[in-house]
Task: inverse folding
């Protein structure tokens, strides 16, 4: 596929926002259970605000993906069948939950309410992860995406980045929680990394189900396209293939392999409560996630490309 | 569902190409909204093609010329700097100039026309003007196919006849990519295949039609002659020929004088005591009756000619039947011999012959149609042999194409497939006499100031006396047509006009008028040099070709070189007649002519070229256009078409339908003032269906012949025997050998004429191949027609240009790899004449000794009002830069018999372009800005 | 249930592109339009088409097949492009199985195109909505057209009649029997989309020569006394025996 920045930002920003929310709630639950000291409301309110900001920015970015953004309101209609429609419903619901959660903390609504609102938010958060990821994972002929690793990784990668971000926030307003958050971020990062490696490994071994032979229905080992019917490009040549060199794609892959986990992990390890270093760790990890998402799209080999290989 | 907002539908005739399908133009408030095929039209039966369905985008093209333009004083030709002028001014310029030429030396006006279909009118204009320097595109197009066949069977493929796929069982197509009969041929091939017919394509390349052939026979370019001769060899050796047919309907049994010392060597024996009936087409030729063992008049009742043997006449003359000579000729043309030349395995060649022969013999067709032959023989049925052929420029566009085409005509005749069901069928006005009766002027004395030519401009020489040469045997035409260099150049040699005029050889001219031809680009060989010639000047600063007029509808490459541009209408904006006097759209079952009527108003100041001609003819007071009182005879073109008669009261005019005062006559009849309206009301087409007994065997069908004479489609009613052996050619050979009592070629040309005027077909390597170092230039380079583009004129079409935005050179991977050329990589293609940089595309569908590209996709920057960096100009290329119009020694790169341009003879080498070279096609040209009046022009 | 579809006969398609431009022409002027073009007279011209004809080469020289391959929306019976559409702009008509895009509802999210394995949907660059073959739904039911014109534009245009149109659920229809009789197949069957459009494969007519057909009773060489005989000079029994 040809990675679209709008979608890359949408999914990574949502992921970070969702992860951040999960981190907030984890601290909340942990504190409620006496596992750690209760941070002040600024942590939650600030966190919820930040998470909301990420979600809004992601949503905003998604509009650039639409040809007719003014009609975006129509996009919830087919929630029964479309993961995209479901995402369109769950996303605002989750944003509402995050808002409510922040508001509950701001208004000091009390532990129970905060926790219940948070629990609802968590359900929506996970639902959102599933919806977002299933948009891709449900397309069975996009074999690279059609795997449970896709929702798993969306969840893990988003969570890892959110926890990293939460540790930055903690360094600023709730330093005593930094350690736990950083450790959690490391653990989630490690899991996400494993998950992503597993996906890479799986995809490297995929054998495409479709071939030129099934695409045109002629059985022969030697089939070559000579003309695709037009020569100046079309939607089909622009949308489904990145058009980059193999070297570029490989470089992006290295960037993701290095930036998604190893580098942030080291920085998380050494930064202590230094908000600046933690911030840098998050920034680098986020860049890694942009690379990851770019690669996620780029590596998906759409069977339609069988029909768009050569001009003459 | 809402419906298309169409307010009106009109029918007319397409001219996105020369096929001329019937179309329906659907209009919304006078604007074209949608064009589709007319289901009630006999030619295309409702279908349309990619071009036809894109007609709207041609109508809306930004390259449309809308105003008469004059080259800006002081600007160079080719730079494209013009200023608009009025039509009045344009006509004044033309009138003054042309009147001057006509009054002094009419030859100095040359009118050449390209992809048009109004040769009856343009030819008439030239004749009335009195200039012999007129021809249409046929000479660079496919004259070999026309002449080779017409001199053999009295008809040809193309607009003259075609394969009867309705009844054929085996269809063999040689060297055809798209052809003029585009839609009907597609309709027919598909029905043929669906019926289970077997389709074999002989072609170095497998595209288009060949793609759906049951068998593809890759052949080396220029070698089909050898293949056909080997098949003929096999057919004769195994006795797979149709003896009955040949004996009666060809000159197979006619006795040829075999006496090398005689003045009459090689001529057919006539019985001097018998009435020849028609001196031009003598009927007193003789057979050797194998039953009585005597020489008898041919077609003597009860006689049967010997086809083989050698006989002595009573006067001691040694004679052989022409079939014997043919058999001797192909004796050594074995499959093995042909295999070496063609690259086709000998076993395949034999099998092809066997398939043809067996299918022809065993699948005989018999239709219950009674008919009478020209000798009075009554036949209860029409029989046929279901083997059909089709061939086009793959055979024609080689300098050995005339003989190759003759070989094909002979093979078709041996199989017994001429104008019979399942084989080849003629289309009216064919068949014609061999050779047809029209003759060109005979010498300089026939060209006189202020006087129309006594004869037609173009014609069909039957002997050296019909050549158009002076006392010394030198050419009189600017293109050297009908000279000893190209005696049977029945369509002229348009590809030599610019070079000859530039050289002043045979003489300089004054005004060159080009209509509908892009001669600064794709219809010219040696394109780079020709573009220079067009702008070249004498020492006195005057252009070598002093005045160039171009009539075009679009800003082509050619318009930039004009001194005066006349903006034509498009096909949707004008009247046109596809006349029986010209190139009609006849069907097998009878004559068909058609018209175009305007469906929208002309854009800007566009004026149909027809109107320009009628106007000029009136102003110049051509006799046929002037009343006895000196007044103008025809108001305009529609008026001319309706009222013109070939002779006063002949009842014969441009259109055959709805003649007579009330439109109740056809073929002949008084002018009908409502004729256009009646055509318009009848799908713009007139179809005359012959009774079925006149539909077959027309060369020898008495009923048909009499009908054709009555309809004045033919002068004579004599049967048209197939010329297996061409006495016409032998006459020229005798002249070359000094044995002809009349005209003889100049010394320098004797050997050439003697060699190529062989009365029997033979194969020789194309002239250019003989003049090329095969080690340095080992590959044949050819082009072919893309179905979705017409020559150079569709790059202005926003839809079609997306399909062919630029072109590649297709190379067999084995050939390419051996030379380091990569798929998609930039490469050089070099011939001994020039070079081109382009991109390579590997293809398994091309014979390894051949490279090819789509014709005329590459464009000069700025032409057609495309952006200067358009793909056509930067990545596209024109193969013509590699092709020369002259061979070493200066003769034209043309067939030595017909003057047909040898487009497909060039030999090239290929190599990769260096990594540091520009990734753009070469040669490069400076961009021409949009001309005034075109969209986007300042 | 009716399922309208095209059946494309690769055995006769010559790759002429008539179906491509006639489709463009009808649809750009009709209710599905406009189908816009970008850079129409500039570098890299591009535009929206519902139907494209591609070319493939199968095999290695000299056993090469050139296959012209027209492709438009296949109107899948189980179309993956429909359920994914969040707005319902993409839908499959119950009455005739045509898969359509409602241009007024479409938000241009391209998701349906991602969900189509065949690469037949095109987002119009200017209109910013998804487009695709409509099976000329605005033609085939148009009662103002004469009966014979109520067929898709591409079908009417095709000079080789390689495009058949009809109801593949009606076993008696011409398209159904074409599929049955000529080995009609679907593209990429592996994805279970059950395309309604089918393709008919190349069918080869061969010729067998029986040796006796070459030794003919009607051989005209007999008449001319020329039937192949050994030359008198060649060895014969006469040279070696006397009796
Ligand atoms: N290399 C190579 N060269 C070839 C060939 C080949 O096979 N290979 N083929 C040759 C053959 S067979 C031919 S016929 C020639 C064709 O070559 P040309 O006769 O040059 O054909 P076009 O390029 O189509 O140019 C015709 C001109 O007609 C103009 N035109 C179009 N419509 C109208 C109209 O309605 N009115 C007027 N007045 N003008 C109009 C176009 O704008 C264009 O300038 O090319 C020859 N050149
Ligand atoms: N769409 C479209 N239709 C057209 C035209 C167009 O430009 N576009 N042009 C029209 C004109 S003016 C003409 S003259 C006709 C020409 O119609 P065609 O004769 O069909 O056209 P060409 O493209 O010249 O095709 C020649 C074929 O001969 C093959 N060939 C070349 N050399 C040899 C050879 O030595 N032997 C054999 N067996 N094959 C050979 C080439 O590969 C090619 O397939 O088409 C007309 N129709
Ligand atoms: S074949 Fe030629 S005349 Fe017929 S529709 Fe196509 S462009 Fe028009
Ligand atoms: S119109 Fe017919 S023959 Fe031409 S490309 Fe389309 S399907 Fe094939
Ligand atoms: S071909 Fe593609 S667009 Fe058409 S119905 Fe099937 S999945 Fe949908
Ligand atoms: S692009 Fe339009 S039709 Fe396609 S999924 Fe999005 S809204 Fe639906
Ligand atoms: S059915 Fe109509 S919309 Fe579909 S490809 Fe054919 S012409 Fe185009
Ligand atoms: Mo031509």
Result:
């Amino acid at each position: 596929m040809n990675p679209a920045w709008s979608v890359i930002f949408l999914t990574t920003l949502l992921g970070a926002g969702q992860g951040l929310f999960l981190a907030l709630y984890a601290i909340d639950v942990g504190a409620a259970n006496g596992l750690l000291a209760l941070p002040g409301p600024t942590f939650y309110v600030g966190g919820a605000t930040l998470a909301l900001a990420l979600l809004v920015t992601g949503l905003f970015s998604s509009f650039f993906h639409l040809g007719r953004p003014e009609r975006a309101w129509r996009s919830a209609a087919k929630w029964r069948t479309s993961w995209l429609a479901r995402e369109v419903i769950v996303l605002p619901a989750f944003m509402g939950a995050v808002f409510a959660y922040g508001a509950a903390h701001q208004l000091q609504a009390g532990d129970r309410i905060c926790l219940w609102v948070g629990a609802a938010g968590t359900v929506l958060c996970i639902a959102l992860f599933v919806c977002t990821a299933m948009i891709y994972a449900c397309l069975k002929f996009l074999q690279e995406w059609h795997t449970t690793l896709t929702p798993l990784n969306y969840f893990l990668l988003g969570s890892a980045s959110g926890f990293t971000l939460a540790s930055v926030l903690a360094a600023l307003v709730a330093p005593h929680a930094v350690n736990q958050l950083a450790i959690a971020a490391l653990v989630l990062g490690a899991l996400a990394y494993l998950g992503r490696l597993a996906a890479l490994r799986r995809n490297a071994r995929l054998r495409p189900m479709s071939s030129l032979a099934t695409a045109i229905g002629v059985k022969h080992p030697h089939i070559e396209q000579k003309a695709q019917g037009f020569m100046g490009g079309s939607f089909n040549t622009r949308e489904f293939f990145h058009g980059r060199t193999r070297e570029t794609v490989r470089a992006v892959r290295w960037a993701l392999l290095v930036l998604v986990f190893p580098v942030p992990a080291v920085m998380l390890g050494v930064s202590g409560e230094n908000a600046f270093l933690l911030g840098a760790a998050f920034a680098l990890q986020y860049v890694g996630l942009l690379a990851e998402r770019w690669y996620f799209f780029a590596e998906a080999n759409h069977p339609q490309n069988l029909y768009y290989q050569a001009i003459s | 569902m809402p419906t298309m907002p169409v307010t009106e539908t009109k029918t007319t005739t397409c001219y996105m190409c020369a096929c001329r399908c019937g179309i329906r133009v659907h209009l919304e408030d006078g604007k074209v909204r949608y064009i589709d095929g007319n289901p009630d039209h006999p030619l295309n039966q409702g279908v349309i093609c990619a071009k036809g369905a894109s007609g709207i985008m041609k109508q809306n093209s930004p390259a449309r010329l809308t105003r008469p333009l004059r080259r800006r004083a002081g600007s160079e030709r080719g730079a494209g700097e013009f200023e608009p002028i009025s039509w009045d001014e344009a006509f004044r310029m033309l009138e003054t100039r042309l009147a001057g030429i006509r009054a002094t030396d009419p030859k100095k006006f040359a009118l050449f026309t390209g992809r048009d279909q109004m040769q009856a009118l343009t030819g008439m204009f030239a004749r009335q003007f009195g200039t012999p320097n007129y021809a249409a595109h046929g000479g660079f197009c496919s004259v070999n196919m026309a002449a080779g066949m017409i001199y053999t069977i009295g008809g040809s493929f193309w607009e003259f006849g075609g394969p009867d796929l309705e009844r054929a069982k085996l269809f063999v197509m040689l060297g055809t990519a798209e052809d003029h009969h585009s839609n009907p041929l597609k309709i027919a091939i598909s029905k043929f295949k669906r019926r289970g017919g077997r389709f074999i394509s002989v072609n170095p390349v497998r595209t288009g039609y060949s793609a759906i052939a049951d068998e593809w026979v890759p052949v080396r370019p220029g070698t089909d002659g050898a293949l056909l001769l080997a098949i003929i060899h096999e057919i004769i050796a195994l006795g797979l020929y149709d003896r009955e047919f040949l004996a009666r309907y060809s000159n197979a049994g006619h006795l040829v004088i075999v006496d090398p010392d005689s003045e009459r060597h090689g001529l057919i024996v006539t019985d001097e005591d018998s009435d020849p009936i028609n001196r031009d087409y003598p009927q007193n030729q003789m057979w050797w009756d194998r039953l009585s063992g005597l020489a008898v008049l041919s077609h003597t009742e009860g006689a049967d000619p010997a086809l083989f043997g050698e006989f002595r006449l009573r006067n001691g003359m040694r004679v052989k039947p022409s079939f014997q000579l043919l058999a001797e000729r192909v004796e050594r043309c074995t499959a093995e011999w042909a295999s070496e030349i063609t690259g086709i395995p000998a076993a395949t060649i034999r099998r092809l012959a066997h398939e043809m022969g067996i299918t022809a013999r065993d699948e005989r067709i018999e239709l219950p149609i009674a008919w009478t032959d020209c000798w009075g023989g009554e036949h209860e049925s029409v029989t046929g042999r279901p083997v059909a052929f089709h061939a086009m420029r793959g055979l024609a566009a080689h300098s050995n194409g005339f003989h190759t085409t003759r070989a094909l005509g002979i093979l078709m005749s041996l199989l017994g497939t001429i104008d019979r069901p399942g084989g080849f069928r003629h289309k009216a006005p064919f068949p014609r006499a061999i050779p047809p009766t029209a003759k060109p002027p005979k010498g300089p004395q026939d060209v006189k100031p202020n006087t129309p030519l006594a004869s037609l401009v173009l014609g069909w020489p039957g002997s050296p006396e019909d050549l158009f040469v002076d006392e010394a045997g030198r050419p009189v035409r600017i293109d050297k047509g009908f000279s000893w260099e190209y005696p049977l150049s029945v369509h002229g040699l348009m590809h030599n006009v610019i070079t000859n005029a530039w050289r002043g050889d045979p003489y300089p001219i004054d005004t060159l008028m080009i209509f509908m031809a892009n001669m600064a680009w794709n219809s010219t060989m040696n394109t780079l040099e020709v573009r220079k010639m067009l702008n070249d000047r004498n020492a006195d600063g005057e252009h070598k070709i002093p005045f160039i007029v171009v009539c075009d509808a679009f800003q082509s490459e050619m318009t930039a070189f004009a001194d005066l541009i006349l903006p034509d209408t498009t096909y949707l904006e004008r009247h046109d007649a596809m006349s029986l006097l010209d190139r009609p759209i006849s069907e097998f079952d009878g004559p068909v002519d058609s018209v175009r009527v305007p469906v929208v108003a002309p854009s800007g100041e566009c004026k149909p070229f027809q109107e320009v001609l009628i106007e000029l003819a009136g102003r110049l007071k051509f006799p046929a256009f002037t009343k006895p009182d000196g007044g103008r005879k025809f108001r305009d073109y529609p008026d001319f078409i309706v009222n013109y008669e070939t002779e006063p009261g002949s009842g014969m005019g441009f259109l055959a339908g709805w003649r007579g005062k009330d439109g109740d006559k056809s073929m002949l009849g008084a002018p009908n003032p409502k004729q256009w309206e009646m055509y318009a009301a009848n799908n713009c087409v007139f179809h005359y269906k012959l009774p079925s007994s006149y539909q077959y065997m027309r060369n020898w069908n008495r009923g048909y012949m009499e009908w054709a004479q009555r309809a004045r489609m033919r002068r004579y009613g004599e049967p048209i025997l197939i010329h297996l052996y061409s006495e016409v050619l032998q006459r020229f050979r005798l002249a070359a050998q000094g044995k002809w009592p009349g005209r003889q070629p100049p010394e320098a040309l004797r050997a050439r004429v003697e060699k190529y005027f062989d009365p029997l077909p033979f194969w020789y390597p194309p002239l250019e191949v003989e003049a090329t170092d095969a080690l340095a230039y080992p590959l044949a380079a050819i082009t072919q027609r893309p179905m979705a583009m017409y020559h150079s004129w569709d790059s202005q079409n926003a839809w079609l240009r997306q399909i062919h935005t630029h072109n590649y050179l297709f190379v067999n991977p084995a050939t390419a790899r051996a030379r380091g050329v990569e798929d998609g990589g930039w490469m050089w293609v070099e011939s001994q004449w020039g070079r081109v940089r382009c991109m390579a595309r590997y293809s398994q569908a091309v014979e390894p000794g051949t490279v090819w590209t789509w014709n005329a996709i590459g464009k000069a920057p700025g032409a057609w009002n495309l952006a200067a960096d358009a793909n056509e100009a930067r990545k596209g290329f024109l193969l013509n830069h590699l092709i020369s119009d002259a061979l070493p020694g200066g003769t034209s790169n043309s067939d030595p018999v017909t003057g047909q341009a040898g487009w497909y003879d060039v030999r090239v080498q290929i190599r990769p372009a260096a990594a540091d070279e520009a990734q753009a096609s070469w040669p490069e040209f400076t961009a021409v800005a949009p001309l005034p009046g075109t969209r986007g022009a300042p | 249930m009716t399922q309208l579809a095209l059946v494309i006969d690769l055995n006769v398609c010559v790759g002429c592109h008539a179906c491509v431009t006639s489709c463009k022409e009808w649809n750009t002027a009709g209710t599905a339009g406009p189908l816009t073009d970008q850079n129409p007279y500039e570098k890299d011209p591009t535009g929206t088409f519902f139907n494209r004809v591609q070319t493939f080469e199968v095999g290695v020289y000299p056993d090469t097949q050139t296959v012209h391959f027209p492709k438009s929306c296949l109107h899948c019976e189980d179309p993956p492009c429909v359920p994914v559409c969040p707005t319902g702009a993409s839908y499959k008509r119950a009455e005739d199985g045509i898969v359509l895009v409602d241009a007024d509802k479409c938000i241009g999210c391209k998701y349906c195109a991602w969900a189509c394995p065949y690469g037949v949907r095109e987002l119009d660059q200017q209109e910013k909505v998804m487009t695709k073959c409509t099976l000329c739904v605005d033609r085939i039911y148009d009662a103002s057209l004469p009966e014979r014109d109520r067929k898709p534009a591409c079908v009417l245009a095709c000079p080789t009649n390689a495009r058949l149109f009809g109801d593949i659920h009606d076993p008696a229809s011409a398209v159904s029997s074409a599929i049955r009789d000529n080995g009609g197949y679907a593209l990429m069957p592996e994805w279970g989309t059950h395309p309604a459009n089918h393709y008919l494969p190349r069918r080869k007519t061969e010729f067998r020569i029986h040796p006796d057909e070459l030794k003919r009773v009607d051989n005209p060489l007999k008449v001319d006394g020329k039937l192949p005989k050994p030359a008198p000079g060649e060895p014969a029994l006469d040279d070696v025996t006397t009796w």
Observations:
- The mean pLDDT of chain A is 96.
